[in-house]
Design brief:
The structure holds two protein chains of two kinds. By secondary structure, chain A is mostly helical. Chain A is 62% helix and 0% strand. Chain A has two domains: 11-83, Rna Polymerase Sigma Factor, Chain: A; 88-193, Orthogonal Bundle (Arc Repressor Mutant, subunit A), CATH 1.10.10. Classes of the chains: A mainly alpha, B mainly alpha. At the A-B interface, α1, α2, α5, α6 and α8 of A face α2, α4 and α5 of B.
Chain lengths: 196, 102
């Protein structure tokens, strides 16, 4: 490939050209503006250090995003490992007893009021898209960190499940249970927003 | 004889009977995986008799598609958030220092 077709790095222009883009990318995934800003800055600095490794095959922005992605995964991993040192602890985070009856002839059935109320999670009629976005963000933010990490990697990053398991150091059956619990929580959170 | 037959039918059926906790897990599992025959059968049997889990299944589908839309909108409107002037200056300074340190 000739040098002409290659992409080049212009670090002095990074903040100007990619700052907002990276910030938005990070906010959707870490749900915390301050942390997102820190991650963006770390990405730029890591980019500077790794400048010589840039081969010009992808655009500058794609390259920066790939660094940011690694940083985001690292924060998930930190959140995850600071919160849970064992599966037993993660079991305490949210238990089946929060949603289902744990004894009696109807063991395993929905607890009163914990099951779905209507067929639709969203209110009838038009919802303002900005409002819906805010509510989804708020609900993800309120997930326990380990569930949020699994949910975001699967649903927002659309990462491969093997990759998620590897990153979080869990088995695939752990992952399906975590995603199930994240969905239980998300469902409850969204529904409670509309039930007045 | 008849009693024994009903009994064994009941035992057979109970293998397929699950409660809401397992059914809702399978509903979520189904979003990301293919259900094998036995699991699919158990879920179907449960849904026939449980209106709450039928609603749950609909809501979970809706949840996943709403989150997908959220993800797409975040990609398509990438500048929903902006760096504050202060953060911008801080970063520019940090990058500048990094460049000069080379």
């Amino acid at each position: 490939m000739s040098d002409k077709g290659k992409h080049t790095l212009k670090p002095r222009m990074w903040v100007e050209q990619h700052g907002n883009y990276l910030l938005n990318y990070a906010i959707v995934r870490v749900n915390d503006r301050e942390k997102a800003e820190d991650l963006v800055q770390e990405t730029f600095l890591a980019g500077l250090k790794a400048k010589d490794k840039f081969q010009g095959k992808s655009s500058e922005r794609t390259w920066l995003i790939s660094i940011l992605k690694r940083k985001i995964i690292d924060t998930y991993r930190k959140q995850y490992s600071s919160k849970v040192s064992s599966m037993a602890e993660y079991e305490q985070d949210i238990t089946d007893g929060d949603f289902y009856r744990t004894q009696g002839p109807f063991k395993g059935h929905w607890l009163e009021g914990k099951g779905p109320h209507s067929k639709s999670l969203l209110p009838e009629g038009e919802i303002e898209q900005g409002e819906l976005r805010e509510i989804i963000r708020w609900c993800i933010e309120n997930l326990p960190p380990n569930l949020a990490a699994a949910f975001i990697m699967k649903m927002i990053d659309e990462a491969d499940s093997d990759e998620i398991c590897k990153e979080l150091g869990i088995t695939s059956s752990n992952l399906w249970v975590m995603l199930h619990r994240a969905r239980l929580k998300m469902r409850t959170c969204l529904e409670s927003k509309w039930l007045k | 004889m008849l009693k024994r037959m009903t009994n064994s039918i009941m035992v057979f059926m109970s293998k397929f009977m699950i409660a809401c906790d397992e059914a809702s897990f399978l509903i979520s599992y189904k979003q990301d995986n293919r259900l094998g025959f036995a699991k699919w059968m158990r879920l179907k049997m449960h849904l026939l008799s449980c209106h709450l889990c039928r609603k749950y299944a609909l809501q979970i589908k809706q949840l996943d598609s709403t989150v997908s839309e959220y993800r797409e909108s975040a990609h398509h409107e990438p500048c929903h958030h902006h760096l504050s002037g202060k953060a911008c200056d801080k970063m520019k300074q940090a990058v500048e220092e990094g460049v000069n340190a080379k």
